[in-house]
Write a sequence for this structure.
C-alpha cells in the first residue's frame, strides 16, 4: 500500500474508532417519542435524489451577518440540484464529477433557498468549512481529488497525481453567483484541511490540516525563520497563511516521527495576534520529536496501538501570525483521544480556547484524562480501551495554553462524539455531535429525551465556573426509520449561535425518513438516495 493510501485508510478507520458508529439492537424511542416541540424551531432536509448513490452531506455552517441567513457546505453525488432548487443564483449548476462540493444559502427560518452552487472537477471534491468575510464574500475550504479542479483568479491548480487529494480554498460573491478566486494547496501526495480555516479582517486566510507529502510547499514568511521545513512522519500536520491575493505567505509542517493532523479546527485570537490549531498526534515529545512546548502538558500520554484503532493524544498549538510556534500542548490520557474533525475548536471573546471531541481514556491510571474538579462529569462512562466506547469531552484552556480551566466527560455506555463547539451570549458552551448510547444524559427540558436509532445527533449546552458545572440543555435529535444502505442514523457536524436570539443553528446529515423537520421547511420530506443533509434551528431555553 502506498504512503498516501495507507495514511488515508488509517485516518478514516481511526476516526471511526474514536467515537464513530457502532451497531445496536436496542429499541429506540420511536419518531417523536418524548418530544418537547418548542425547542425545534425549524428543521429541513437538503439534497437531491438522482446521480450516483444520492449521498448528500452537510459539514460546515455559518451565518451571514445582519440577515442571519444560513450558509451550509458539504458534498453531494446528486445531479439534480438544478431541478430541486430552481431559479436562484449560483456559479455552477451542473455537477462535474461523481461527487462535488456544494455551497448553499438558506433563509434564516430555513423555509427557502436563496442561492446554491456546485464546486469541483471530474474527481471527488468535498467542502468542510464555510465563512463569510467582512465584505460579505463567502469562503469555503475542503479537499479535492480532481486534477481539473477550477483554479480561478490566478489561483494555483491541483498539484498531485490523479485521485490524490489537495486542500482547496475558494471565494464567492455574496449571492454565490461568481467564483472570484479558487486555488489548491498541496504536494504530490494527500492533503486535507477539512474545516480548519479562518479569514482575517485584513483579508489573509489561515488554514491547517494533514499532509502525506514530503514536498508540501513549506516556506517562511518574509524576514522570518521557517518553523519546520521537513516532513517528519507518515503524515504531518501543517499550518499555512495566504496573503489577500491568495498567494502563499508562509506554510509549515507541524509534527513528529509518527502521525499527526491539524484538521480539527483553526481559529484566530480575538485581536488576531495568534493562530490556534487543533488535531491529534501519535508522536511523543522524545524520540519522535513532537514539538510540545510552553504549555499545560508536554508529555505524550496516549495509546500507541495500531493506527487503525488509535489516534493517540489530542493537541492544541498556538502560532504567531508569521508562523512561529508559541506553545503546543498535548490533551489526552492513557487511551485514545480525537478532537473533533468537524469544527472542534473555538476561541472565546476573552481568548480562552475551547475544544471538543471524543475520548476512551479513564480519569485514573498513570496518565489520567485531565478532567477538572469543576467538571460536570468526572467519570468516564463508556468502556475504556479497545475499539468500543467513547465519551464526549469538552475542555477549556487559557489563551497561553498553560492551564486547563475546565474539562468534563459527557456520555453513556456506547459511542459518543462531540462536534461544532461555540459559546452563546450567556457564556454557555454549546455543541452538537452524535451518540449510540441509550443512556446519553439528557436534560429535563430536552426536545427528545429518548434514543431514536442506531446513531442519533445530539445538541447540548452546559455552563461552568470555578466551582462546578450545570447541564443546561441536552437532547437527542433524529429519527429511527433508516433508509436501506445508509449509515444508520443522524450526525450533527457544524454549529453556530444566532446573535439576535441565541438560537443554535446546526448542520449534519441523516439517512432516516422520519427526521424531525418542521412545517414550512424548505424540504420537509426525505428526498431520496442514501442520505440527505440537514440544517436545524434550535432553542435551548
Amino acid at each position: 500500500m502506498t504512503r498516501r493510501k495507507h495514511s488515508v485508510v488509517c485516518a478514516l478507520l481511526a476516526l471511526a474508532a474514536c467515537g464513530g458508529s457502532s451497531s445496536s439492537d436496542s429499541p429506540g424511542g420511536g419518531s417523536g417519542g418524548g418530544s418537547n416541540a418548542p425547542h425545534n424551531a425549524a428543521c429541513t432536509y437538503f439534497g437531491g435524489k438522482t446521480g450516483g448513490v444520492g449521498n448528500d452531506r452537510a459539514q460546515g455552517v455559518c451565518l451571514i451577518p445582519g440577515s442571519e441567513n444560513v450558509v451550509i457546505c458539504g458534498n453531494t453525488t446528486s445531479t439534480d440540484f438544478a431541478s430541486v432548487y430552481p431559479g436562484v443564483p449560483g456559479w455552477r449548476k451542473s455537477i462535474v464529477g461523481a461527487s462535488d462540493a456544494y455551497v448553499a444559502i438558506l433563509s434564516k427560518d430555513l423555509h427557502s433557498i436563496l442561492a446554491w452552487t456546485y464546486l469541483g472537477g471530474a474527481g471527488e471534491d468535498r467542502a468542510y468549512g464555510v465563512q463569510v468575510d467582512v465584505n460579505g464574500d463567502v469562503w469555503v475550504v475542503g479537499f479535492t481529488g480532481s486534477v481539473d479542479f477550477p483554479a480561478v483568479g490566478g489561483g494555483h491548480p491541483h498539484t498531485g497525481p490523479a485521485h490524490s487529494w489537495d486542500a482547496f480554498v475558494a471565494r464567492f460573491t455574496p449571492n454565490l453567483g461568481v467564483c472570484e478566486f479558487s486555488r489548491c494547496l498541496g504536494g504530490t501526495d494527500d492533503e486535507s484541511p477539512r474545516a480548519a480555516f479562518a479569514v482575517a479582517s485584513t483579508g489573509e486566510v489561515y488554514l491547517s490540516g494533514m499532509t502525506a507529502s514530503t514536498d508540501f510547499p513549506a516556506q517562511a514568511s518574509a524576514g522570518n525563520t521557517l518553523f519546520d521545513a521537513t516532513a517528519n512522519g507518515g503524515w504531518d500536520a501543517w499550518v499555512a497563511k495566504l496573503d489577500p491575493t491568495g498567494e502563499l505567505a508562509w506554510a509549515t509542517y507541524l509534527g513528529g516521527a509518527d502521525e499527526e493532523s491539524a484538521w480539527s479546527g483553526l481559529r484566530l485570537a480575538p485581536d488576531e495576534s495568534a493562530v490556534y490549531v487543533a488535531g491529534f498526534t501519535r508522536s511523543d515529545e522524545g524520540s519522535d520529536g513532537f514539538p510540545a512546548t510552553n504549555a499545560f502538558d508536554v508529555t505524550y500520554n496516549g495509546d500507541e496501538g495500531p493506527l487503525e484503532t488509535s489516534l493517540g493524544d489530542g493537541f492544541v498549538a498556538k502560532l504567531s501570525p508569521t508562523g512561529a510556534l508559541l506553545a503546543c500542548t498535548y490533551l489526552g490520557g492513557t487511551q485514545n483521544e480525537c478532537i473533533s474533525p468537524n469544527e472542534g475548536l473555538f476561541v472565546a471573546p476573552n481568548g480562552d480556547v475551547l475544544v471538543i471531541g471524543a475520548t476512551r481514556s479513564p480519569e485514573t491510571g498513570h496518565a489520567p484524562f485531565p478532567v477538572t474538579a469543576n467538571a460536570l462529569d468526572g467519570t468516564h462512562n463508556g468502556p475504556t480501551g479497545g475499539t468500543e466506547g467513547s465519551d464526549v469531552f469538552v475542555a477549556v484552556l487559557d489563551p497561553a495554553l498553560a492551564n486547563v480551566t475546565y474539562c468534563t466527560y459527557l456520555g453513556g455506555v456506547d459511542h459518543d462524539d462531540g462536534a461544532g463547539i461555540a459559546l452563546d451570549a450567556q457564556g454557555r458552551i454549546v455543541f452538537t455531535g452524535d451518540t449510540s448510547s441509550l443512556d446519553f444524559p439528557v436534560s429535563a427540558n430536552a426536545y427528545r429525551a429518548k434514543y431514536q436509532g442506531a446513531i442519533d445527533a445530539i445538541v447540548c449546552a452546559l455552563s461552568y465556573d470555578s466551582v462546578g458545572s450545570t447541564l443546561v440543555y441536552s437532547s437527542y435529535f433524529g429519527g429511527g426509520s433508516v433508509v436501506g444502505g445508509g449509515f444508520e442514523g443522524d450526525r450533527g457536524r457544524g454549529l453556530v449561535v444566532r446573535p439576535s436570539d441565541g438560537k443554535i443553528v446546526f448542520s449534519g446529515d441523516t439517512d432516516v425518513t422520519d427526521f424531525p423537520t418542521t412545517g414550512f421547511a424548505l424540504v420537509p420530506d426525505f428526498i431520496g438516495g442514501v442520505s440527505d443533509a440537514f440544517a436545524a434551528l434550535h432553542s435551548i431555553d
